[in-house]
Amino acid sequence: MKRLFPLLSLLAALLLLPACGQAETTDNVLQSTELMAGSHQTTQSVTLTTEKLSSKDGTVLTLSVENQGESPVLLTADLDFDHKVTVAPGQTGVLTQKVSGVPKTYPFEVHAEEAGSLVDVVYAVTQSTT
Asked: Could you give the 3-state DSSP secondary structure of residue 25?
C-alpha cells in the first residue's frame, strides 16, 4: 500500500496538469459580441452606428456584409472612402476598424457603387478581442 500511494499521487498530478495549462491560455481565446445585425433593401445609403464602445470589450470592430443585390456595394467606416471595401453581388465583404479606449460611437456605411442602384444586403457588426 505504501508503494501504491506515491504512484496514485503522481497519476493524480498528471491528470490535473493539463487543466492547469488550460487556465493559463484562456486569456488568448477570441471573444466576440454581435452588436447589431439585420438586412436592408433600399436605393439610399445605409448608415449603421454603434452605441458608445470602448476597447475594454474588444479592440476590433467588424462590419460583415453579404451583398444579395445585383450591383456592387461599397463599405466605408466614418465616410472614409480611402479605405473602402467593394463587395460584388453574391459575395461577402468585411471592413474592420480599431476601437479606442475612449468611449465613442462608430458609424459604418453601405453605399451602392453606382448611384441609384439597389442596396440589398444582410449585415452584422461585431466587437472582438482580436
From this structure: helix
